[in-house]
Amino acid sequence: MKVASLSAPGGIDRIVFRDVADPGQPGPGQIRVALHATSLNYHDLLVANGGIPAADGRILMSDGAGIVEAVGEGVVEFQPGDRVVSCFFPQWQDGLPSDAVGSFAGTPGDGINGFAAEYAVCAATAFTHAPRGWSDAEAATITTAGLTAWRALVVNGQLKAGDTVLVLGTGGVSIAALQIAKAMGATVIATSSSDEKLEKVRALGADHVINYRQNPNWGKQVYSLTGAGVDHVVEVGGPGTLAESITAVCVGGHIALIGVLTGRQGDVPTMALMAKQARLQGLVVGNRRQQQDYIAALNQNGMRPIIDRRFALDQLPEAFAYQASGAHFGKICVEW
User: Fold this and answer.
1) What is the DSSP-derived secondary structure letter of residue 99?
2) Which of 8, 39, 127, 280 has its CA 20 to 30 A from that of 316?
3) Does residue 260 surpass a pLDDT of 80?
């Protein structure tokens, strides 16, 4: 079967398309999936460009969606023909995070082989059902970006109608968070450096928009718009944006620290955070039960992901280059 793998030490120009042995039929507790789509995340880009070291020949991509071809002995949750989507942490079924998910050692496309492949044979518990009526490309956006947004707002944040949510930028997590927040009756403030993208988020329901390049002190503007600060911040920037997010959050509010787009470390205004008595919580995606809950909600509310562009599998390097340019709005998907 055809796969897209990475030659060490990494780099988009070191993505190799090669043929490997078919994984065969599923054993007890396993399913065989004909994969048809993946979606790009910042984590995938870091692996591909060598920012996160991976084993030589690692098959790329954490997200995978496709159709069950066969089920092994003892599998009752799935049957051939079911559309499924992978889990970011296949070893994390439910409950609170533990040492097992304190690294990416068990994450597809990083510590283990990923889903840039025609077929996969995995434990049935490494997948969930996809939302009804979704394409494989749409379903692939759930594994990382969609579930991250869901956990940040609904699981950890306990989002409720009438809350105010700040989303930073217009990547996959932020757009999913915007959609979830609006579906649950929240007010949303969105930031971007592009007026064109801000018009797009306004069309998706954002109540207020801020161009952070034109207003580098956007935290104060957010605070002014709300009168007391926002209840939730979906913080994908990291050290370069965290101080402004702390300014923007209300007393007793919640900041979900998700991304490191501006760097991996930096100063934290601890006095300001303490004065706000805000909760700053780091998170990395979520567990299988949370993914199932998210998909149950998607089956009810009719929400669909925003896909900016679609590429073929042999265009994966071009897809990563487009992602690195920052020009995308929402998700980038690869289909085959």
Assistant:
1) G
2) 127
3) no
CA 105 to chain centre: 18
Strand residues in the chain grouped as ranges (E)? 2-6, 15-19, 30-39, 58-59, 65-71, 83-86, 119-123, 127-129, 164-168, 187-192, 208-211, 230-235, 249-257, 279-282, 307-312, 331-335
Q: Are 200 and 223 in contact (CB under 8 A)?
A: no
Amino acid at 55: A
Interatomic CA distance for residues 173 and 306, integer angstroms: 11
Cβ neighbours for 316, distance < 8 A, ≥ 6 positions apart: 4, 15, 60, 116, 334
Distance in angstroms (rounded) separating the CA atoms of residues 317 and 267: 34
Determine the Cα–Cα distance for residues 123 and 126; give it in Å rounded to an integer: 5
267: pLDDT strictly greater than 90: no
The mean pLDDT value of the chain amounts to 97
Share of residues in the chain with pLDDT > 70 (%): 100
Residue ranges, CATH 3.90.180.10, the chain: 2-141+305-335
Residue linked to tokens 């979830």: 180
User: pLDDT tens across 315-330, in order?
Assistant: 999 999 999 999 999 9
pTM of the model: 0.96
Nearest 5°: phi and psi at 92?
A: -110, 95
Residues of the chain with CATH 3.40.50.720: 151-282
Identify whether the C-beta of residue 33 lies closer than 8 Å to the C-beta of residue 140.
no
Residue 261 has pLDDT above 80, yes or no: no
> Would you list the DSSP string of 197-241?
HHHHHHHTT-SEEEETTT-TTHHHHHHHHHSS-EEEEEE-S-TTT
pLDDT digits (tens, 9 = 90+) for 152-202: 999 999 999 999 999 999 999 999 999 999 999 999 999 999 999 999 999
* DSSP secondary structure, 108-132, as one string: BTTTB--S-BSEEEEEGGGEEEPPT
pLDDT at 263 over 80: no
- 274 alpha-carbon distance from chain centroid: 29
